[in-house]
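R.M. (postdoc): so does anyone remember the format we settled on? I'll just put the C-alpha coordinates first.
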Protein backbone atom coordinates (compact mmCIF):
# COMPACT_ATOMS: atom_id res chain seq x y z
CA UNK A 1 0.00 0.00 0.00
CA UNK A 2 1.20 3.49 -0.80
CA UNK A 3 1.52 6.34 1.61
CA UNK A 4 -1.06 9.12 1.67
CA UNK A 5 -1.60 12.36 3.49
CA UNK A 6 -4.77 13.07 5.50
CA UNK A 7 -5.60 16.72 4.91
CA UNK A 8 -9.40 16.79 4.85
CA UNK A 9 -12.32 14.39 4.33
CA UNK A 10 -13.65 16.19 1.27
CA UNK A 11 -12.56 13.43 -1.12
CA UNK A 12 -13.07 10.52 1.27
CA UNK A 13 -15.90 8.21 0.21
CA UNK A 14 -18.54 6.78 2.53
CA UNK A 15 -17.02 3.35 1.99
CA UNK A 16 -13.59 4.56 2.94
CA UNK A 17 -14.94 6.23 6.09
CA UNK A 18 -16.47 2.91 7.07
CA UNK A 19 -13.21 1.06 6.40
CA UNK A 20 -11.19 3.45 8.54
CA UNK A 21 -13.71 3.06 11.37
CA UNK A 22 -13.59 -0.75 10.98
CA UNK A 23 -9.81 -0.61 11.20
CA UNK A 24 -10.08 1.59 14.30
CA UNK A 25 -12.38 -0.99 15.88
CA UNK A 26 -9.88 -3.75 15.12
CA UNK A 27 -7.17 -1.62 16.72
CA UNK A 28 -9.34 -1.02 19.76
CA UNK A 29 -9.88 -4.75 20.06
CA UNK A 30 -6.13 -5.35 20.07
CA UNK A 31 -4.75 -5.88 16.57
CA UNK A 32 -2.53 -2.83 16.77
CA UNK A 33 0.75 -4.04 18.20
CA UNK A 34 3.76 -3.83 15.94
CA UNK A 35 1.90 -2.24 13.02
CA UNK A 36 4.38 0.67 12.96
CA UNK A 37 7.48 -1.01 14.40
CA UNK A 38 10.60 0.59 12.95
CA UNK A 39 8.70 3.69 11.78
CA UNK A 40 9.12 7.21 13.14
CA UNK A 41 6.09 9.42 13.70
CA UNK A 42 6.83 13.10 14.20
CA UNK A 43 4.27 15.15 16.13
CA UNK A 44 4.72 18.80 15.15
CA UNK A 45 2.27 20.84 17.23
CA UNK A 46 2.62 24.57 16.68
CA UNK A 47 -0.63 25.41 18.50
CA UNK A 48 -1.99 24.31 21.90
CA UNK A 49 -3.48 20.86 22.24
CA UNK A 50 -4.35 18.38 24.98
CA UNK A 51 -6.48 15.56 23.59
CA UNK A 52 -5.29 15.59 19.99
CA UNK A 53 -1.59 15.65 20.88
CA UNK A 54 -1.87 13.04 23.65
CA UNK A 55 -4.04 10.66 21.63
CA UNK A 56 -1.77 10.84 18.56
CA UNK A 57 1.21 10.08 20.79
CA UNK A 58 -0.56 7.17 22.51
CA UNK A 59 -1.77 5.89 19.14
CA UNK A 60 1.71 5.98 17.59
CA UNK A 61 3.25 4.27 20.63
CA UNK A 62 0.60 1.55 20.66
CA UNK A 63 1.55 0.78 17.08
CA UNK A 64 5.18 0.43 18.15
CA UNK A 65 6.43 3.58 16.37
CA UNK A 66 9.23 5.81 17.59
CA UNK A 67 7.73 9.20 18.44
CA UNK A 68 9.41 12.59 18.11
CA UNK A 69 7.55 15.64 19.46
CA UNK A 70 8.20 19.18 18.35
CA UNK A 71 6.53 22.44 19.31
CA UNK A 72 7.18 26.05 18.34
CA UNK A 73 8.81 26.74 21.71
CA UNK A 74 12.18 25.07 21.82
CA UNK A 75 12.37 24.37 18.07
CA UNK A 76 13.98 26.45 15.30
CA UNK A 77 10.47 27.84 14.54
CA UNK A 78 11.14 30.20 17.46
CA UNK A 79 14.25 31.38 15.55
CA UNK A 80 12.11 32.22 12.56
CA UNK A 81 12.48 29.03 10.53
CA UNK A 82 9.59 28.64 8.09
CA UNK A 83 7.02 25.86 8.22
CA UNK A 84 8.24 24.44 4.92
CA UNK A 85 11.89 24.38 6.04
CA UNK A 86 10.80 22.75 9.30
CA UNK A 87 8.86 19.91 7.67
CA UNK A 88 11.60 19.40 5.04
CA UNK A 89 14.02 19.01 7.96
CA UNK A 90 11.79 16.41 9.62
CA UNK A 91 11.50 14.63 6.30
CA UNK A 92 15.28 14.60 5.83
CA UNK A 93 15.68 13.17 9.33
CA UNK A 94 13.62 10.18 8.24
CA UNK A 95 10.11 10.82 9.59
CA UNK A 96 7.66 8.23 8.21
CA UNK A 97 4.66 10.43 9.06
CA UNK A 98 4.35 14.06 10.14
CA UNK A 99 1.34 14.96 12.28
CA UNK A 100 0.91 18.71 12.01
CA UNK A 101 -1.11 21.22 13.99
CA UNK A 102 -0.64 24.82 12.95
CA UNK A 103 -2.56 28.10 13.38
CA UNK A 104 -2.73 28.81 9.63
CA UNK A 105 -5.47 27.32 7.42
CA UNK A 106 -3.88 25.46 4.51
CA UNK A 107 -0.63 24.74 6.37
CA UNK A 108 -1.00 20.94 6.28
CA UNK A 109 -1.66 20.98 2.56
CA UNK A 110 1.35 23.28 2.01
CA UNK A 111 3.57 21.02 4.13
CA UNK A 112 2.46 17.89 2.27
CA UNK A 113 3.63 19.39 -1.03
CA UNK A 114 7.20 19.50 0.28
CA UNK A 115 7.59 16.17 2.03
CA UNK A 116 7.97 12.56 0.97
CA UNK A 117 6.42 11.53 4.30
CA UNK A 118 2.63 11.71 4.55
CA UNK A 119 1.23 14.65 6.50
CA UNK A 120 -1.68 14.11 8.86
CA UNK A 121 -3.60 17.30 9.51
CA UNK A 122 -4.20 17.60 13.26
CA UNK A 123 -5.94 20.98 12.83
CA UNK A 124 -4.92 23.90 10.61
CA UNK A 125 -6.31 27.23 11.83
CA UNK A 126 -9.91 27.65 10.67
CA UNK A 127 -9.29 24.99 7.97
CA UNK A 128 -9.86 21.31 8.67
CA UNK A 129 -9.57 18.73 11.45
CA UNK A 130 -10.21 15.39 9.71
CA UNK A 131 -9.23 13.01 12.53
CA UNK A 132 -11.62 14.82 14.89
CA UNK A 133 -14.48 14.14 12.46
CA UNK A 134 -13.44 10.50 12.15
CA UNK A 135 -13.37 10.00 15.90
CA UNK A 136 -16.75 11.72 16.20
CA UNK A 137 -18.20 9.28 13.65
CA UNK A 138 -16.59 6.43 15.56
CA UNK A 139 -17.93 7.49 18.97
CA UNK A 140 -21.41 8.20 17.62
CA UNK A 141 -21.73 5.01 15.59
CA UNK A 142 -20.60 3.02 18.62
CA UNK A 143 -23.26 4.71 20.78
CA UNK A 144 -25.98 4.13 18.18
CA UNK A 145 -25.09 0.53 17.36
CA UNK A 146 -23.09 0.78 14.12
CA UNK A 147 -22.14 2.97 11.16
CA UNK A 148 -25.38 2.26 9.29
CA UNK A 149 -27.35 3.56 12.28
CA UNK A 150 -26.08 7.07 11.49
CA UNK A 151 -28.11 7.29 8.32
CA UNK A 152 -31.18 9.54 8.64
CA UNK A 153 -30.27 10.77 12.14
CA UNK A 154 -30.85 14.44 12.80
CA UNK A 155 -27.84 16.32 14.09
CA UNK A 156 -27.70 20.00 15.05
CA UNK A 157 -24.26 21.61 14.81
CA UNK A 158 -24.34 24.41 17.33
CA UNK A 159 -22.31 27.54 17.90
CA UNK A 160 -19.16 29.08 16.49
CA UNK A 161 -19.18 27.51 13.01
CA UNK A 162 -17.31 30.52 11.58
CA UNK A 163 -14.03 29.79 13.36
CA UNK A 164 -14.42 26.02 13.53
CA UNK A 165 -12.15 23.68 11.61
CA UNK A 166 -14.05 20.90 13.39
CA UNK A 167 -17.32 21.99 11.73
CA UNK A 168 -15.61 22.10 8.31
CA UNK A 169 -14.58 18.45 8.71
CA UNK A 170 -17.59 17.16 10.63
CA UNK A 171 -20.16 18.51 8.15
CA UNK A 172 -18.85 16.48 5.15
CA UNK A 173 -18.28 13.45 7.39
CA UNK A 174 -21.82 13.49 8.82
CA UNK A 175 -23.25 14.16 5.35
CA UNK A 176 -21.46 11.13 3.88
CA UNK A 177 -22.75 9.03 6.77
CA UNK A 178 -26.28 10.02 5.69
CA UNK A 179 -27.12 12.30 8.61
CA UNK A 180 -29.51 15.26 8.34
CA UNK A 181 -27.67 18.36 9.48
CA UNK A 182 -28.95 21.70 10.69
CA UNK A 183 -26.88 24.62 11.94
CA UNK A 184 -27.78 26.48 15.13
CA UNK A 185 -25.83 29.72 15.30
CA UNK A 186 -26.16 33.48 15.18
CA UNK A 187 -25.46 34.90 11.70
CA UNK A 188 -22.34 36.55 13.11
CA UNK A 189 -20.85 33.12 13.81
CA UNK A 190 -21.59 31.61 10.40
CA UNK A 191 -19.24 31.90 7.44
CA UNK A 192 -20.42 34.19 4.63
CA UNK A 193 -20.59 31.23 2.24
CA UNK A 194 -22.55 29.02 4.68
CA UNK A 195 -25.65 29.49 2.47
CA UNK A 196 -23.90 27.45 -0.23
CA UNK A 197 -23.87 24.44 2.13
CA UNK A 198 -27.65 24.27 1.76
CA UNK A 199 -28.23 23.50 5.44
CA UNK A 200 -31.12 24.92 7.47
CA UNK A 201 -30.10 27.53 10.06
CA UNK A 202 -32.08 27.51 13.30
CA UNK A 203 -32.19 30.27 15.94
CA UNK A 204 -31.82 28.22 19.15
CA UNK A 205 -31.19 24.79 20.65
CA UNK A 206 -34.86 24.76 21.76
CA UNK A 207 -35.90 25.09 18.12
CA UNK A 208 -33.53 22.27 17.08
CA UNK A 209 -35.05 19.99 19.71
CA UNK A 210 -38.58 20.96 18.59
CA UNK A 211 -37.59 19.88 15.09
CA UNK A 212 -36.43 16.49 16.28
CA UNK A 213 -32.64 16.84 16.70
CA UNK A 214 -31.27 13.59 18.13
CA UNK A 215 -27.65 14.69 18.38
CA UNK A 216 -26.54 18.11 19.67
CA UNK A 217 -23.01 18.69 18.41
CA UNK A 218 -21.73 21.80 20.17
CA UNK A 219 -18.69 23.85 19.17
CA UNK A 220 -16.41 25.87 21.41
CA UNK A 221 -16.77 29.63 21.32
CA UNK A 222 -13.32 30.29 19.88
CA UNK A 223 -12.58 33.69 21.31
CA UNK A 224 -8.86 33.42 20.43
CA UNK A 225 -9.82 33.52 16.74
CA UNK A 226 -12.36 36.35 16.96
CA UNK A 227 -11.29 39.72 15.67
CA UNK A 228 -14.25 41.75 17.00
CA UNK A 229 -17.33 41.32 19.17
CA UNK A 230 -19.52 38.73 17.47
CA UNK A 231 -21.97 38.11 20.30
CA UNK A 232 -23.63 40.60 22.66
CA UNK A 233 -22.47 38.69 25.76
CA UNK A 234 -21.52 35.18 26.79
CA UNK A 235 -24.65 34.95 28.98
CA UNK A 236 -26.89 35.92 26.07
CA UNK A 237 -25.13 33.38 23.84
CA UNK A 238 -25.57 30.58 26.40
CA UNK A 239 -29.30 31.33 26.64
CA UNK A 240 -29.92 30.50 22.97
CA UNK A 241 -27.00 28.28 22.01
CA UNK A 242 -26.05 26.52 25.25
CA UNK A 243 -27.19 22.92 25.78
CA UNK A 244 -29.10 22.62 29.05
CA UNK A 245 -30.54 19.66 30.94
CA UNK A 246 -34.04 20.37 29.60
CA UNK A 247 -32.77 19.60 26.08
CA UNK A 248 -31.99 16.00 27.05
CA UNK A 249 -35.54 15.03 28.09
CA UNK A 250 -36.36 13.42 24.74
CA UNK A 251 -33.17 11.35 24.64
CA UNK A 252 -30.86 13.62 22.62
CA UNK A 253 -27.12 12.92 22.79
CA UNK A 254 -24.59 15.70 23.38
CA UNK A 255 -21.19 15.98 21.68
CA UNK A 256 -18.35 18.51 21.85
CA UNK A 257 -14.80 18.22 20.50
CA UNK A 258 -13.38 19.81 23.66
CA UNK A 259 -12.11 21.81 25.37
CA UNK A 260 -15.54 22.81 26.73
CA UNK A 261 -16.31 26.22 28.19
CA UNK A 262 -18.53 24.81 30.91
CA UNK A 263 -21.70 26.80 31.38
CA UNK A 264 -21.34 28.40 27.94
CA UNK A 265 -21.65 25.69 25.24
CA UNK A 266 -22.97 23.08 27.67
CA UNK A 267 -24.46 23.50 31.14
CA UNK A 268 -21.80 22.51 33.71
CA UNK A 269 -23.24 19.26 35.04
CA UNK A 270 -24.44 18.10 31.61
CA UNK A 271 -20.86 17.79 30.27
CA UNK A 272 -20.38 14.42 31.93
CA UNK A 273 -24.05 13.35 31.98
CA UNK A 274 -24.97 9.88 30.67
CA UNK A 275 -26.31 11.59 27.53
CA UNK A 276 -22.92 13.17 26.88
CA UNK A 277 -20.52 11.48 24.46
CA UNK A 278 -17.69 13.88 25.33
CA UNK A 279 -15.57 11.25 27.17
CA UNK A 280 -16.36 8.69 24.43
CA UNK A 281 -15.13 11.14 21.80
CA UNK A 282 -11.85 11.57 23.65
CA UNK A 283 -11.42 7.81 24.08
CA UNK A 284 -12.12 7.21 20.37
CA UNK A 285 -9.11 9.40 19.54
CA UNK A 286 -6.58 6.65 20.19
CA UNK A 287 -7.88 3.80 17.97
CA UNK A 288 -9.02 6.19 15.25
CA UNK A 289 -5.64 7.93 15.12
CA UNK A 290 -3.70 4.66 15.14
CA UNK A 291 -5.88 3.54 12.22
CA UNK A 292 -5.15 6.80 10.38
CA UNK A 293 -1.40 6.49 11.03
CA UNK A 294 -1.29 2.95 9.66
CA UNK A 295 -3.24 3.98 6.55
CA UNK A 296 -1.11 7.12 6.06
CA UNK A 297 2.17 5.21 6.25
CA UNK A 298 0.90 2.38 4.05
CA UNK A 299 1.16 -0.13 6.91
CA UNK A 300 -2.58 -0.95 6.92
CA UNK A 301 -3.57 -4.01 4.92
CA UNK A 302 -6.57 -2.58 3.17
CA UNK A 303 -8.49 0.68 2.89
CA UNK A 304 -9.72 1.86 -0.50
CA UNK A 305 -7.74 4.74 -2.01
C1 LIG B 1 -10.67 21.40 18.68
C2 LIG B 1 -9.53 22.05 17.94
O1 LIG B 1 -8.47 22.29 18.49
O2 LIG B 1 -9.74 22.27 16.78
N1 LIG B 1 -10.29 20.64 19.76
C3 LIG B 1 -9.80 19.41 19.55
O3 LIG B 1 -8.97 19.17 18.70
N2 LIG B 1 -10.29 18.44 20.34
C4 LIG B 1 -11.79 22.31 18.93
C5 LIG B 1 -11.55 23.56 19.71
O4 LIG B 1 -10.44 23.93 20.05
O5 LIG B 1 -12.55 24.20 19.98
Amino acid sequence: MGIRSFLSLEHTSRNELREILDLARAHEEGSVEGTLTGKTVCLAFFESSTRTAVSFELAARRCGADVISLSDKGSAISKGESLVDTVVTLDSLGADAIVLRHPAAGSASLASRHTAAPVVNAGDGCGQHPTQALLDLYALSKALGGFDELSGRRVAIIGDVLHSRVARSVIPAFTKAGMEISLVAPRTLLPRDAGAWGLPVLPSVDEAIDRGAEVLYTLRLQRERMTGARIPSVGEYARFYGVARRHLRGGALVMHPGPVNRGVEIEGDVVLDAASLVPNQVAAGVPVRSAVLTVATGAAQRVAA
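R.M.: ...and that's the designed sequence above, right after the C-alpha coordinates. Also worth knowing: The pocket of N-carbamoyl-L-aspartate is lined by residues 51-52, 123, 129, 132, 165-166, 220, 222, 257-258 (CB under 6 Å). The CA atoms of residues 139 and 145 lie 10 Å apart.
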